[in-house]
Amino acid sequence: MGSYPSPPPEEQAYKLADIPGKGKGLLATTTLNPGTLLISEPPLFTTSSLTNPSTIEKDLSKIIRSLPKAAQRAFLSLHNNNPGPQPFTNIIRSNGYPLGPSSDVGGIFPAVARINHSCLPNTQHAYNPKIGRMQVHVLRPIASGAEITLSYTTGGPSDIRQRMLKEYFGFSCTCELCSLPSPKLAESDNRLRRAQELDTRIGDPKRAHKNPLAALRDCHALHQIYQDEQIRDLRLPRLWHDAFQICAMHSDLARARVFARRSCEARILCEGEDHPNVEGERALVERPEGWGGWGVTGLWGGREGEMVLGEGEGEEGWLWRVDG
To answer: Which of 95, 72, 84 is closest to 24 using CA atoms?
Structure first.
């Protein structure tokens, strides 16, 4: 597993600028390669102490007054999607990020909050609990002068994305993906609806147990959609990990190790070398048998941990082989 470039100094990597139709945003000031750590930012503050819904605005006021002047200005300069009688609360709602995918606690990260949305983003954000920072890594090449983007949604077809963005952020998306000509957009939407269906089926543990060949076929089909849609965000390592679990459940050491390696590499791209999720995937690469669900059946247990290609079969054909 290779490593990615060391981050350039942040002050040289991006700048805050006016973005037509979007207000403020971040532009790259140098060419940025995939895997580059663009931002590593501690929170100005977190919402961990905001436990009483009836006093949140008052409690936020105290927190903000306690910040250094520069931090106060950074917070108050952030966009408010819902101007009204609770300005501090609404700035949090407009700009806060959870401290991990399952956390109820959020934080304000001013630099990350300046990154505008795209349904085909060129960066991925992830909170690293080991160092208490929100980090942003580059997913695809970004030219100097190009806008840096994140996705505010979890994907899906354009009607679902647009509805969510309008409801929670108050804008209609005009990104590269949403601006496709109608026939191309319809094709993309059909693929992404299919992706949602496949993801649901892949996530059914009973099906993976009873019909692993069908589950692996679904993983292959979903991977093809992700390639067609140029998806490189955290959905990709999740797919690789799902495929790992199917093979590990049925004692296929060789393919389990390859899928774990691909999941690890994809997570490094999205989350960085030192993220706890990457450490967990590395352990599975080293010892797939250490996974808690290893060997529920011995269906594919005759494979000795080495790639054995059939006649005329390449690595991809072997990896996705579903003939049992």
So the answer is: 95
